[in-house]
# Entry
Amino acid sequence: MLTWKDVISFSIHGSPNPDKIVVRSLEEWKRLLSPEQFRVTRQKGTEAPHSGALCSIYDEGKYNCICCNTPLFDATIKFNSGTGWPSFTQPIKENAIKYIKDESFGMLRVEVVCNTCEAHLGHVFPDGPAPSGLRYCINSESMKIKKEGEER
Ligand SMILES: [Zn+2]
# Structure
């Protein structure tokens, strides 16, 4: 289980290597994504709180990257943080997420991106529930739910 200490270490020394890497040009991503998906994942946008389609959904399944379809989170580790964004306590696998130190807006935060295609997902904070104490605050636009047994 990852803790805040691991997150800080990954953001300073580098994250675990992904299983594979997906690289596309901005033009290609623009063609493949909706305008809002493109803004959030490729231009580090943030959707308005409580606006996301996945915010109040707790169906079983995996949450995959909207860009490259890599599983990022599981419904069993989703919780209601009350923030208006889908929130998780752990990634589905230790190497699913890449951690980047983010000093924009005069704050020190840790940005989380898809480790496979570098899609912007959101941020991780040290104020989540026990035992990990982590809160991955993720844009709905960055993910799609993949139900058990579904091909895509
Ligand atoms: Zn991805």
About this structure: The helical segments are 4-13, 26-32, 35-42. The chain is about 15% helix and 25% strand.
